[in-house]
Amino acid sequence: MKNIKAQLHSNLKNSNLSFATTFFCMFLILPVLTNAQKVTYQQLKTYEGLYQSVNNTTLKIAASPKDTNLYAIINLSRYKLRPQGNNVFLNSTNQPVTFLKDQNGKIKGYTIDRDTFKLLSQNVSFPVKMWSPRMVDNPDKFVYRYQQPAQLNDALQTGTLKGTGLNPQLLADMMHYIVAGKYPDVHSILIIKNKKLVFEEYFYEYTRDSLQEMRSASKSVISALTGIAIQQGLIKSVNEKLQDLLPSYHFANPSPLKDAINLQDLLDNQSGVNYDEAWPKSMGNETDMGISKDWVKYTFDLPMIDTPGKIGRYNSGNSITAGWIIQQYAQMPIHDFAAKNLFGPLGITNFKWDFRPDPSNAANFCQVILSPRDMAKFGLLYLNKGLWNGKQVIPTAWVAESTAKHSVVQGVDYGYLWWLKYLDADGIRYYGFAAQGNGGQKIYVFRDLDLVVVTTGGNYNTQSPADELIRKYILPSFNKNGGK
After folding, report:
1. CA gap 353, 338 in Å, rounded
2. Which residue of 53, 414, 424, 432 pairs with 409 in a disulfide if CB–CB is 3.0 to 4.6 A?
3. Are 350 and 411 part of one and the same domain?
4. What total number of domains does the chain contain?
């Protein structure tokens, strides 16, 4: 098992995965289908159903009529299985997933890594929309016709493209290529320009009411709540030591370096413990943390590898611990603290956030689940320096501090759980900051352009096209003579 996890961790380096995805990698994270074994759609349909999975959870197996692939569906995410032989498929670590049949030839379950999981029901249906970006007769000839986003009673103002500088033809080209399948598994694209939502499109079975797993983009929400908690006096400052914030914890491998860790070191991913998801030789990783009894203790039981505040490492245990601290000092679930102090003022009421950093939360791994419109509101709040409808929801100084450079993580400038990124469009460099999560969950804020771009997607553990779409079809509008 240790060798499997080591191989898995090596395969996943530099991927910025959320906790849930990393944990499930051991079992059913699935790569792009190869042509090694041809299986018909009707054959694949015999495997469809609801199955048992790890930690008393379930998953669904579905056959796609669009690309003749088999998919495992875990919560809101789906992954391809690669056919290998008779009733055998391979996952991304080349472990065989073998479907079992009873004496009558009916599927009864599957085995993987010596574990057997039962088929619970084959009475499962899948919406046909989930296989196509848009239900059109000829995707290659799709012609996009722009419509202004609907004005709803959700505190988000909408407008048209007129006067925004956005190039309608570039957006139409983007839509054409998405529908034609050039950019698969894009769930939504929203654009806020000049404080108004001017572009809003959804694909596959997703609509404006669909909730989307934010994955690691949830970290930026924890950053916002940290600033609010400090403003309210629940936490004194980012300089508070970890050992003072969590006095009931007695971490293993004590040292003067570990005693020096403070809250800022968690927020800028410079805690110094031996945990780095981009380094396969790291002692700490999401896979082991996910199955540990206490994710906070797991993270800071690890030995130190350098001085706190010195080197940025992508360590999801840092943000989990920051969220746990907020929850302890607010004396309420972080869901309720966010509802009262962050999401409530923005008119966000339909969201999910199950924050329990232990194996009982294996299905969600402490992530926020929001609609794309509400993700856009969060981005707009930061564009407005924490101000919303005349109310200062997040202190202006905290917005500035949390989106300023404090470290470098995986070669990218990093603030307080925000990525400080730039995108190049036709030779012009545009600087912004972003919340981002595995699969293509992005909230980009380009303050100089008065622009927020939100994407959601299902490109889990593969390269998301989100940045390319923004570079090729949105930002070039603001180059000289780029807009219309």
Report:
1. 9
2. 414
3. yes
4. 2
